[in-house]
Amino acid sequence: MAKLLSCVLGPRLYKIYRERESERTPPGVPETPASGATPSASSWDSYYQPRALEKHADSILALASVFWSISYYSSPFAFFYLYRKGYLSLSKVVPFSHYAGTLVLLLAGVACLRGIGRWTNPQYRQFITILEATHRDQSSENKRQLANYNFDFRSWPVDFHWEEASSRKESRGGPSRRGVALLRPEPLHRGAADTLLNQVKKLPCQITSYLVAHTLGRRMLYPGSVYLLQKALMPMLLQGQARLVEEYNGRRAKLLACDGTEIDTMFVDRRGTAEPQGQKLVICCEGNAGFYEVGCISTPLEAGYSVLGWNHPGFAGSTGVPFPQNEANAMDVVVQFAIHRLGFQPQDIVVYAWSIGGFTATWAAMSYPDISAVILDASFDDLVPLALKVMPDSWRGLVTRTVRQHLNLNNAEQLCRYQGPVLLIRRTKDEIITTTVPEDIMSNRGNDLLLKLLQHRYPRVMSEEGLRVVRQWLEAASQLEEASIYSRLEVEEEWCLSVLRSYQAEHGPDFPWSVGEDMSAEGRRQLALFLARKHLHNFEATHCTPLPPQNFQMPWHL
Hints:
It is built from 19 helices and eleven strands. It starts with a helix and ends in a 19-residue tail after the last strand. By secondary structure, the chain is an alpha/beta fold. It has helices at 2-9, 21-24, 52-85, 90-119, 122-136, 140-146, 196-221, 227-246, 298-302, 324-340, 358-367, 383-390, 396-406, 411-415, 445-457, 464-474, 479-488, 493-507, 521-535, and strands at residues 13-16, 149-151, 160-161, 251-256, 262-268, 281-285, 306-310, 349-354, 373-377, 422-427, 536-539. InterPro entries: AB_hydrolase_1, AB_hydrolase_fold, ABHD16_N.
């Protein structure tokens, strides 16, 4: 009877993975996750096959879940319509509640029938036995057996807790239950006294900004958190997970962040391979509709690196909602997991981000200054110009206030706090982070990210002459134009390197540098163009085109 109840209340089982390479490796032999692993024909045919009763009951419950999600998003309009028609009176609400109660009882009955169908299936009974054993005792053997199943991630036991990283000191900005530290925007009216009257005047605007951010704004900014989109992408996500687990021996884990958010991660270990880049861990930060199952994780993976992918809060197996504070909390526990559980030193960790993932990548770089390098692909400097681009001009004040107070993705400000190597990849046909049209490459906000970084690190070089020549170089829309500008200015790379190395040897590596202070205008132009070319690479593609592995390169450093 207890097993039947477990089957009724248990999670949905999606897939049973085929035997993986690591399980066939004799003890003492190093694992080689991707050493020529060729998937068999059954690699994509190992989905769990439910019995008819479970299958039909699952279909009914899934349909009910979709209708509930649609009702949730349309509820404000529905309530307004019912109110206008007079359907919210007590005499009409009571019968409706009876209908709703009957429907809930019917769905509960369907769930019980599904449990009976699971109970008659020996595969599901074996799975639920392993899951219960793992919750009681998280031994390595139980975890190994549980990793052979792909099921509703809400029932996966927590593998790493944010408090396990006990060696982190509060002086470094260690997390508390309220969350990690973020850079806060400066007040719009710095000199105004914040009296009670001023607070009352601001209250309507603050309430409006809060409502916009927590309803329309968050879903526009992170469409991947919308349940209906995730439901539509579910088959693709399951296939992506199967590829990572079966072909690359990926290891899934659940991390608990300081705010209680559960983060879904996937780790592929290449340290046992002959390739030297396998000793480096690349932490991948996905875009606003990206998931590690099908996202930018494939680029460093195919390039031979160890990889740690994770899903934003509210995406796929991760819980919570993707606001900046939650995003930073999630990134913090991911980095802590990489250091304290996976055993990578910060000097061996590279953070790679695509698009909106630049926010968490730059936060990690700012908060963990010993990280080896940062690579930002198709990212931007600040969210406000991009938000203003898609909203009416009459909403400018509301949009700016809402972004600054609730959705402040200040990538450039955070990146300037990092002292290590940085590489920016600009898409020359990017249609998302341009503020006009894709053909106008100068409206690409990646340009502003580069300029702000160089102006912070090399303020004397990026004076009027340096700024002008870098802008000319950024106008180049092809490699031929780029090379033409570079050769026309006759940049002497050896001279630029010698100047920078001499300054570093004398003054140390910490930015900002005063190099170029006593330099001629021609010297500053050469140095500015040299630095711009080292920090930004062009990729002739649109925003969502996957980055080829050969374009994934480590940033330049002296």
